[in-house]
Amino acid sequence: MLSNWYIELQRVTLLVLATTFIGFFFDHALIGLIVGLTAYVLWNVRQMSRLESWLQHQELDKLPLSEGLWGKLFDSIYRQEKEHQSGKRRLQTIIDRIQQSTAALQDAVIMAEYDGTLEWWNRSTESLLGFRSPDDGGQQITNLIRDPDFVEYFESEDYATPLVINSPINPNMVLEISVTPFGNDDRLITARDITHIEHLERMRKDFIANVSHELKTPLTVLIGYLETLIDYSDDNDRWLRIFHQMQTQATRMQDLVQDLLILTRLETTEINLEEQPVNLNYLLENIAAEARTYSNGEHQIILNCENEIEMSGSYDELRSAFSNLIINAVKYTQSGGRIEIKGYLDRTSIHIEVIDNGPGIDQKHIPHLTERFYRVDESRKSDTGGTGLGLAITKHIIIRHNGHLGIESRLGYGSKFSCEFPIALLSQHQQLA
Ligand code: ADP
């Protein structure tokens, strides 16, 4: 750069010297000097104007030719502009490829602004959600997908779990919608057709419900006859042992069928919750008394309710949920252990907790505990007579009451099962107090 600057300096010096010399020759050296400098300034202004008009017209190939520093300046701008343009072309090719592959996706992909203004969508969006291109561009997504569940979901900004709705253009099509915030707080919305999966899921539920229902009567008959057989085999120890074993296993099957039927009923979302005011203090006292009988004095069972709590919900379902947690605590805690049942309120929630100092549960099992038939290996071996459905039922009931089940545990220290319900479920008179 220094050498360019040096050459330019030489050039201006030579020009000024030449004009001064000519001026001197005519006895007007100063005028010669002024003419030389003016010519140099005018030449620079001309180069600037060429540069300006070249940049203005964006005709890259019509590069102005020039000498010295200006020539170099034109060359380097030309090179940079070329690189910029080829970079732009490369990026455009990548964007085109991404758009082509997204357009070919079977899932609907929609890009929208933070407030739901539609920016872009792929072809599948038109067949799954009925968007029309280009007419619907710039519309609000909630004007096109009007399902109140979707509107609430989109506006909630809590997209942790996907939403399942029916397609606005085909009520028989079931869609799973996910929203992902990206970039400048924009939204990427995807919709997947899960009609087939939903259909299989319904078949699975119907199958379990039908089998359980069909097994109920034969099992009742079997257990009835076994009781009669036990009554009639008073003196025969060998037969009595066999009948007792058969009775235990048949009762276990009956429990399983019973739990499966409860679970199926809870999973059928069409069945509405039978809501009534439930006095939790009374309910928990009742379950604690049952747990004491079940424990046979082997555990210390403490009930600690800080507040009077009356919440709206299904008495039978809540009883079943809390009872599962409390009886589990008794079942899995060694004798001499301590079980505390706590109930309290805070500004946002109703809390019920069951805390034991039993063997605890390894962290790796915790996410699976509420799955159907999931039982921690140890409990399988010790054969507690459980069905592995208790926590699945409890979780369903809590979700039906808009609540959340939390499980914390440490091996060797104990476990804490906490149920949290929205404070809005608290009976009206308590909320006002
Ligand atoms: P089950 O009918 O086997 O009790 P659940 O669904 O109620 O089925 O519980 C699932 C598993 O979670 C149990 O098999 C047991 O291993 C574990 N579990 C539940 N509650 C406790 C607890 N309080 N302490 C230790 N383990 C527990």
TrEMBL record:
- Is Glycoprotein there in the keyword field? no
Encoding gene per record: phoR
Q: Per the UniProt record, which EC number(s) apply here?
A: 2.7.13.3
Q: What is a biological process (GO) this protein takes part in?
A: cellular response to phosphate starvation
Which PANTHER family does the annotation name? PHOSPHATE REGULON SENSOR PROTEIN PHOR
Cellular component GO terms held in the UniProt record:
plasma membrane
Q: Known Gene3D superfamilies for this protein? A: 1.10.287.130, Histidine kinase-like ATPase, C-terminal domain, PAS domain
* Species the sequence originates in: Litoribrevibacter albus
Per UniProt, subcellular location reads as: Cell membrane
Catalytic reactions on record: ATP + protein L-histidine = ADP + protein N-phospho-L-histidine
- Domain PAS as annotated: residue spans: 87-158
Known function? Member of the two-component regulatory system PhoR/PhoB involved in the phosphate regulon genes expression. PhoR may function as a membrane-associated protein kinase that phosphorylates PhoB in response to environmental signals.
Question: Which Pfam families does the entry link to?
Answer: HATPase_c (PF02518), HisKA (PF00512), PhoR (PF11808)
Instruction: State the name under which the record lists this protein.
Output: Phosphate regulon sensor protein PhoR
**Transmembrane regions:** 12-43
- Output one GO MF annotation: phosphorelay sensor kinase activity
- Residue ranges annotated for the Histidine kinase domain, each copy included: 210-425
Q: Which UniProt keywords apply?
A: ATP-binding, Cell membrane, Kinase, Membrane, Nucleotide-binding, Phosphate transport, Phosphoprotein, Transferase, Transmembrane, Transmembrane helix, Transport, Two-component regulatory system
Which enzyme class, named as a word?
transferase
